[in-house]
Design a protein that fits this description.
CATH superfamily of the largest domain: P-loop containing nucleotide triphosphate hydrolases
Low-confidence stretches: none
Strand order of the largest sheet: 2-5-8-1-9
Order of helices and strands: HHHEHEHEEEHEEEHEHHHEHHEHH
Helix content: 40-55%
Shape: globular
Strand content: 5-15%
Number of strands: 11
Number of domains: 2
CATH topology of the largest domain: Rossmann fold
CATH class of the largest domain: Alpha Beta
Length: about 325
């Protein structure tokens, strides 16, 4: 096994050389926000969709646009509004009178990277159309079913400060997102850099493609091969299980949890930990990989009770308590 791990590590070292170059391209435009950029790449490598939550003006949309350019991917931005229809996303059938035939016009979802801007502004039918495509990786229009291109990555943004005229995503649909990121303000020094870089009227950034969609499929195969020890698999299962039954692990959280994380969280936590190890140029997963990515995988999957809300306890507080109490291998 040691030899196998060494071979995987050598392969990871070889295939991860593009990561530094990719970040160099992203850094031409984006100041700071390394956490967001790293997690976006982890989502791309682990084939998992991402929900970005943050107030306007934190470069969420720009970061997704620049990432698409840097990986030479087909990119579509959809601005979600209350009057949007499912057909505006997936496409529709159009009747042509000249030859008495129906033709399929594909919608903007047929792209590699989709930016679903302000997803919580669209009604449930539209959200469902997007989330079905995310889960099934295919779209049915009329009687025809079309596979979506590979890679297919949805990065959805939502604004946490406005509630009027929004349709919050149901918890069951939130579960489709591998990661939920909370994007914060830049530091004072970073904001000064943003001012220097972005205050001009003519802002032309020369972003060079670093990797192609075909190369990403190759890299994903390498990520799949990253070694994860049996003890770390048990650690992941214990973490997720503790969100459902904390008492079994001697953690007293009272009645603060209504619903814990689903088995999908277990799968995503292992896959995202592998992608995180790849980013660190390692051919094996460590407990630190699990800890580093754990909050982003679990924060939207643990549903807190009214008792927790009354005590100002968030899902993040509960997850942190679980991480602090589960034995690390």
């Amino acid at each position: 096994m040691a030899m196998d791990i060494k071979q995987i590590s050598d392969l990871v070292l070889q295939k991860s050389q593009f990561v530094r170059t990719l970040f160099a391209e992203l850094d031409k435009v984006i100041v700071g926000q390394r956490y967001m950029l790293e997690r976006m790449l982890i989502g791309l490598l682990a084939d998992g969709h991402i929900l970005l939550e943050g107030v306007p003006g934190l470069a969420k949309t720009m970061a997704v646009t620049i990432l698409a350019k840097a990986i030479s991917a087909n990119f579509k931005r959809i601005q979600f509004t209350p009057d949007l229809l499912p057909a505006d996303l997936i496409g529709t059938q159009i009747y042509r009178q000249s030859d008495d035939q129906f033709y399929t016009r594909k919608g903007p979802l047929f792209a590699n990277i989709i930016l679903a801007d302000e997803i919580n502004r669209a009604p449930a039918k539209v959200q469902s159309a997007l989330l079905e495509a995310m889960q099934e990786r295919q779209i049915t229009i009329g009687e025809e079913t079309f596979p979506l291109p590979k890679p297919f990555l949805v990065l959805a943004t939502q604004n946490p400060i406005e509630q009027e005229g929004t349709y919050p995503l149901p918890e069951a649909q939130l579960d489709r997102f591998m990661l939920k990121l909370k994007i914060d303000y830049p530091t004072k020094e970073q904001e000064r850099q943003i001012l220097d870089r972005m205050a001009g009227i003519n802002k032309n950034f020369d972003i060079k493609p670093v990797i192609s969609p075909a190369d990403i499929a190759d890299v994903r195969n390498v990520v799949d091969q990253i070694y994860i020890d049996e003890k770390i698999k048990d650690y992941i299962v214990n973490l997720v299980y503790a969100t459902r039954d904390p008492k079994q692990f001697g953690i007293d959280l009272g009645n603060m949890i209504n619903f814990g994380a689903s088995p999908r969280a277990t799968i995503f936590l292992a896959t995202a930990a592998k992608a995180h190890a790849f980013m660190q140029q390692r051919g094996y997963v460590t407990p630190q990989d699990v800890k580093s990515i754990g909050m982003d995988v679990l924060r939207h999957r643990v549903i807190v009770s009214y008792e927790a809300e009354a005590e100002d306890k968030t899902s993040e507080d509960i997850i942190q308590t679980i991480f602090d109490n589960i034995e690390v291998p």
